[in-house]
Amino acid sequence: MNFVKRAGLSLWARKGRTLITFATFLVISLMVLAGVLINAATARAELDAERSVGAEVTLAMDPQAQGNMGQAPTIDSAVVEKIGELPQVEKYTYSMWDRVLLKGEVGLVTDGGEGAMGPGGTAGIGLLDSSLLTDFRSGRFKLLSGKHLTAADKDTRRILVEERLAGKNGLKTGDKVTLTGNDEKTTGQFTVAGIFRDPRPDTELEPEYGVNPANMIYGTVGGLATLNASGGGAQRITRAGFLLRDPDDQEVFRDEAERLAGSALEGFALDVNDKAVQQMTGPLRSISSTATLAMWLIGLAGAAVLALLVNLAVRQRRREYGVLVSLGEKKWKLITQQALEITAVAALAIALGSVIAPRLTQSAGQSLLGREAASAQQRIDAWQPPPPGSTGLDEGIDPDDQPAENADPIDRITVVLEPANLALVGGVGLGIGLLAAAIPAASVLRLSPRSILTNGK
Known about the structure:
Layout: H1 3-13, H2 15-53, E1 55-61, H3 63-66, E2 75-76, H4 77-84, E3 89-102, H5 114-117, E4 121-127, H6 134-138, E5 142-146, E6 158-162, H7 163-169, E7 176-180, E8 187-197, E9 217-220, H8 221-225, E10 236-237, E11 239-244, H9 250-261, E12 268-272, H10 275-316, H11 318-326, H12 331-382, H13 419-445, H14 449-455
Parallel strand pairs: 4-9, 6-8
Antiparallel strand pairs: 1-11, 1-12, 2-10, 3-4, 3-7, 3-11, 5-8, 6-9, 7-8
Helix pairs in contact: 1-12, 2-10, 2-12, 2-13, 4-9, 10-12, 10-13, 11-14, 12-13
């Protein structure tokens, strides 16, 4: 009789054992497929989060290097512009800052800036492209009227003012404002290009500059540079930001930037601003690791159970195999028959599992992710900034742990069964089945028909 036909008859005749093997394979295929689907879904969600936030590399003062320097480092804007022309960069901006004063008819919202900047003084931040400012990109700041400062405005005198400062002084887009430089002598007339909203209250000082956030002024780098008494020369930049085309280009970009800038980067560090992405994808990584661990445990346990089942089956069928071998059947055909039976059961289990798994995985994965996301959101909501004037270290608060704005943890995934996923699970399932069949195969090769038929061994 053909060994393929014998395999079919054997599976039908031993329905109980076949069902047990089928159930074992079904559990394995469901768990492995669930792990694969969850990993694929979380990977897609992470990629979407990276693309929505973008990979931003910040060029800023290196705190460690600053300890050995007398003053904050600066870098020539021309060097930053060369870095910004690298093929990995989609957009870039840079900034500098200095004290500016409002005198005459235009005044500060409150006296909150006087302690840090003196009477009428506030922080003037010069920007190449205000739309790339982290607070604007995240949605924390909102442009209410007018338009952003761009590279095309670089050498003009244009500013953005906060709505409370604009409201107090009756300013609107297109109005003129006179600013005085840090030397309290050099002045310039600037056009209000736009009015924005900063949600921070007047009582919460801007931590980096120590002024009322309502008094912050953002202007063009070239325009604010004209208020510098030293005048002329190259613009000296204190900070820059580069938005990359692809998050995977971070290392290449950093190497190329260091090569281009050379010693000009002394005192600076290139840091990847991935806090928002990490905050959004934290729950995804958690459920992905849980699914992977469960997949491996079930796979290994299932392989062990299958090996025991196949080994037991071989022991129970020793007389059958002895008769077949004594009738001239090749031993390799007996082994192939055993592998064929395992493969047939595995294929049916995987096929059924592929129908059931996506819906079960979507439900289970969504439930797990929902709990992880809720827990992460609670930790974000519970974070409290240090009190004004404090670094937070005395209170056990690390300011670097401050959550990123508008970066809520992802709480939804979409499970999609793709051919590659099914092929992977099919390969794993069949591999487990063949591995389980390989262990007792050695005993088939050692069969002695005379011994089996006379002694039952």
